[in-house]
Amino acid sequence: MNANFLLAPQSHVSVSRIASYVIEGDLKATEIANFFLNRIEQYDSDLNCFTEVDPEFAFQQADRLDRRRQQGDRLGSLAGVPIAIKDGICTIGLKTTAGSRMLENFVSPYDATVIQRLKNADAIILGKTNMDEFAMGGSTESSAFGVTRNPWSLQAVPGGSSGGSAAAVAAWLAPVALGSDSGGSIRQPAAFCGITGLKPTYGYVSRYGLIAFASSLDQIGPLTRSAADAQQILNVIAGHDPLDSTSQRRSPDAACQIVEANSPEQDSRIDRLCDLQDLKLGICRSHWEHGLNPEISAGLKQAIEVLERLGCSIVEIELPHTQFAVPCYYVVAPCEASSNLARYDGVRYTGREPAKDLQEMYCRTRSERFGAEVQRRILLGTFALSSGYYDAYYLQASKVRRLIKQDYEAAFKLCDLIIGPSTPTTAFPLGSQNQDPLEMYLADVYTVSANLAGIPAISIPAGFDKSGLPIGMQLQGPRFGEDRLLHVSHHFQEHTDWHLQWPRFYANNTDKPTDAVQLREVDDNQRPRESEKEASD
Amino acid sequence: MSEINQFDQFQVDYVSRLAMLQFDPSHRGDLQQQLSKILEFVSQLQQVDIPAGTEPFYGTDWGDRLPATLENRVTVDSFINAERGDIPATSLSLSEVLRNAPQSDGQYFVVPPVFE
Fold it and tell me: Is the pLDDT of residue A210 over 90?
């Protein structure tokens, strides 16, 4: 067998299948690595998903793995699976730039905990992906290393800040990727790129080695082509880490039992195909009125009908403080960022501007090497934490944050999951949001609340708009409700095929993409295949 | 628009000094406008009706009240104290730490003098 099985556009090549081929010896890790390295070479000059790929580095990992397999070593659950890593996550041997000139030559002396765990599972670190500078942004346009393009339309953004990771998985330059999410930075690019993106419960995945943006909001999570793959990655990277003082010690199963007072009497593990009978999906009316694109609204209504046919029921819930979530986030996050980015002063981390004295060095380095959005947020955060303003801004925002958290706690007494849009629009054109930072902030309306409350949330593909751009559906769960999110998402994906769609030219090995928008033929008669599946079950 | 929610020229300069950032004077006007607009937007938080006794939430509640199962007794303790014992452990070597130094003498990060 050869690696061409990896190019199967209309079916899904799962992470577990790749790993099993390597473990069984049907395929070499080097062949799999080369397959993706070749695709990167072929397509990434147009997309710019990656900030760094070192083919030799990837090949050596794969080669070592193949030798170990030949020697009869037991291999890990992700054996031979190449993973693209967002460039805000520290990796030995590859640069970690956080999308910034401040760190353009920085090579971390240590691996992030998640990287160590991926290596222990025998995954292959494929390369580092492009991102908004220091994770501040929703389009990957603020990267110091160029924009990343959306594989569904080269004129559109992939979303951000994990845009490079999302685009890489969507274009099948990597089967899975890691991103980070502080206000939607995994879920929004997943929605824009038509893939699955999970933000875990705060504290479930270690932040050790993640370049900090907002320490009470940041979480690392997987970007994948299916919920099943997301679970595979999560199982490897999640769990208590003594090196992260905010890391939680609970195991997911125990936590689910603790939190759920009114859960269905079913085993919620993803690999048991049980039905979704009586699962209550909460819908928040106000989310559907907020200036939501009508095509997204229509697409999601159909998606929800699929879940209803599978046995779920709909419950109306309220999240009364939703309207304050974005202003709350844009106080809390810049405040924490202003503190976290104070360390970038030209002393230790490669980036430095020449100056005659220390003060000038600090100011010149920061002013020359931080981009405009980063500087704006640092200024906002510094102001909101300063004497005389702290109470009115940061303290006030933190109290509103408590109310947002309480809204969710009340809602989860009435429903098992909250369902709604991931984003108010589909992927917007590159360069269209540069004039007004506030407009970009408002687009975070559906995602920031989960970070503020610390709860898990996932975005999964749920259709396309008329121009062929993906629509994402978001599910939010109670703390440590990842199993529930992944179970429902997996079931949805068993009965629909949105997650199996490819941007057309990336499914074809010979064509090069052009500048013209590649439209997917929209067939009004096209419906998810769930009715066929139900008939045969 | 209340004065507290506006960035004036003095505040931009003052906050920039605190944040160790400097600007071309020609850009200050634009920056002031952008920041004022954002500040005005976030100031709606001051209109929120916060019930008396609401504690701020900073991302984690130490010592969450949880049902008293055996599992929880273990985890609640670990929430309250995330510190490890005061026992020396391995860390990075000097050369690893200095590898990313823009300027170093092998022992220290070298920087320009504090004063000219």
Answer: yes
A402 close to B (CB below 8 A): yes
Instruction: Tell me if A362 and B20 make a contact (CB, 8 A cut-off).
Output: yes
In this predicted structure, the answer to whether residue A505 has a pLDDT above a threshold of 70 is: no
A-chain residues near B84 (CB < 8 A): 242
- One-letter amino acid of A419: I
Helices (H), A148-269: 163-170, 187-193, 227-237, 252-259
Give this prediction's pTM. 0.90
Query: Are the Cβ atoms of B34 and A358 closer than 8 angstroms?
Result: no
Q: Please, which residues have CB within 8 angstroms of residue B29's CB and are 6 or more apart in sequence?
A: none
Residues A180-192, mean pLDDT to the nearest whole number? 98
Contact A351 B67 (CB under 8 A): no
Q: Look at A363 and B22 and tell me if their CB atoms are within 8 Å.
A: yes
Residue B89 sits at the chain A interface (C-beta within 8 Å): no
The C-alpha of A429 sits at a distance from chain B's nearest C-alpha, in angstroms, of: 22
Q: Report pLDDT for A8.
A: 63
Q: Residues A416, A456, A283, CA angle at the centre, nearest 5°?
A: 40
Nearest to B56 among A324, A379, A398 (CB): A398
Amino acid, res. A229: D
- List CB contacts (< 8 A) between A98 and chain B: none
Chain-centroid distance of CA A72 in Å reads 35
Distance separating alpha carbons of residues A18 and A26, to the nearest angstrom: 10
A379 and B55: CB-CB below 8 Å? Answer: no
Task: Give the model's pLDDT for residue B8.
Answer: 74
- Confidence at residue A182, expressed as pLDDT on a 0 to 100 scale: 98
* Contacting residues of A for B37, CB less than 8 Å apart: 438
**What residue ranges in A67-195 does DSSP mark as E strands?**
82-86, 124-129, 176-181
**Using 50, 70 and 90 to split pLDDT, how confident is the model at A249?**
confident
Whether B100 has its CB under 8 Å from any CB of chain A: the answer is: yes
- Kindly give the pairing relationship between strand A124-129 and strand A50-52: antiparallel
Longest CA pairwise span in chain B (Å): 64
Q: Using CB atoms within 10 A of its CB, is residue A430 exposed (0-12), middle (13-18) or buried (19+)?
A: buried
Lowest mean pLDDT among A435-439, B99-103, B108-112: A435-439
Taking the mean position of all CA atoms in its chain, how far away is CA B8? 23
Residue A431 and residue A311 in contact, taking contact as beta carbons nearer than 8 Å: no
Q: Are A330 and A380 in contact (CB under 8 A)?
A: yes
pLDDT in tens, A28-82: 999 999 999 999 999 999 999 999 999 999 999 999 999 999 999 999 999 999 9
CB contact under 8 A, A245 and B83: yes
Q: Which amino acid is at A266?
A: Q
Q: How many CB pairs under 8 A join A and B?
A: 175
**Residue B6 scores a pLDDT above 90:** no
Is there a cis peptide before residue A422, judged by omega within 30 degrees of 0? no
- Which one is predicted more confidently, A436 or A185? A185
How far from A185 is each of A53, A197, B66, CA to CA, in Å?
Answer: 22, 9, 31
**More confident site: A342 or B64:** A342
Chain B residue at shortest CA distance from A377: B35
A290 in B contact zone (CB under 8 Å):
no
Instruction: Give the minimum alpha-carbon distance from A511 to chain B in angstroms, rounded to a whole number.
Output: 42
